[in-house]
Amino acid sequence: MAPLGQVTRGTTGHNRLRRSDRWLVHSSRVRTALQAAADPLVVDLGYGAKPVTTLELAIRLREVRRDVRVVGLEIEPERVRAGQSAVRHGAHPGVEFALGGFELADHRPILVRAFNVLRQYPVEDVEGAWAAMRDRLAAGGLIIDGTCDELGRLCCWVLLDATRPVSLTLACDPFAIERPSQLAERLPKVLIHHNVEGQPIHTLLRAADRAWASVAGHGVFGPRIRWRAMLDLLVAEGFPIEVPRRSLRDGVLTVPWDAVAPVS
Predict the structure, then answer these.
(1) What is the pLDDT at residue 244?
(2) Which domain of life is it from (predicted)?
């Protein structure tokens, strides 16, 4: 079977996906899925022109499970060859690279990461791509579909299980933003066209901007403390924010998908 999908721009770089990697490592749902899996196989779909983010993902996920296996899939043969060369010439146990697209090259992973892939597709293709990946998940498997800027300072992603989207996460370097709504430009394809008046994602981003402004006094302690104060205020206003239980270097805001799902 030919790989399902189209060649993307392939832009990538060292540590570009570090924020999503950190979130995966500390997400209780992702950790539970990896630790319970009979085969801890992870697919990194559409890793781009260089294999660096796939190799970094493998290193970070070993904090959760030492025997994790990571397969980087690309539909551009030259990119696959670059990944295979990196494995041959370096110490990268449990990592391999192969041709593949949304059909996942017939693998059955417990986790799929597809970052900066669907952003380059028409919005009407998103549901079909999600469905193709879901069909190949192992029992209890998860998908992360996300987008970030070139340096990985602004990131957004959707977590999906085998049947539906589960949550939306906005993440950033809190030193790199003036207001939370700057993250709107990195919303996943399924949401980016819905950031308009009357849609839940627009309501959330506007509320985050208001809360960010309201807690400006916390900025004297640094933007990370200000971000946490913003989350606390949003929770007090009734937004179903998942407040982290530990201090984070990243600004992270996670809500259930139902809180931001587009409305007709």
Answers:
(1) 79
(2) Bacteria
